[in-house]
Fold this protein.
Amino acid sequence: MSDFSTARQKMVDGQVRPSDVTDLRIIDAMLAVPREAFAPEDQRALAYLDLDLDVGEAGATRRFLIKPVVIAKMLQAAEISETDSVLVVGCASGYVAAVVAKLAGRVTATECDDALAAKAGDVLARLGFGNVTVRTAAAADGDKINAPYDVIVLSGATEIIPERLYRQLRDGGRLVGVFATSRPPRAMIVTHSHADFGDRALFDAAVPVLPGLERPPAFVF
């Protein structure tokens, strides 16, 4: 077993399983997807630690692979089926999209950084994830081309209510993400039902805010 395979097993056994993640499909997906492949060369040794891994280019907007535990718990709450169409918002270098691709029928992933979106597409294609399409788009815009979606996953936090994303959910669809609209930030699930949206808190979580989903700056006299 390679060092990365051992680290992947330890991540699942030491971080994911003890956090009440019992869905075997998610556990199998996280064991199968090589997180290190989505990390910069100089960050690969950190790929399986319990942290938000910076994968942005020097001088560009900082972009992160969010903590494995937060991803796993949100995906478990989303209850993704093998026929679902899923939108991953803010995919960064593509890791969350790859995990979701093991669970869903079709995945659309958006990333605001052109170079990072291209890199994500290349890595996903090289690893054989033919059911993922990566597009460059602002986080708040989502992707109307394949809407409506059964599930939308925010691969980062939002400080605003992402209403445009809500409108891309089909009836019965679910959106999961970390909402930093109040303190403490909480992972939430939002469900679309009969033209209305209901939300439920899942667990406290703190992850970096996605570019474009920041709170507008307050007016200063």
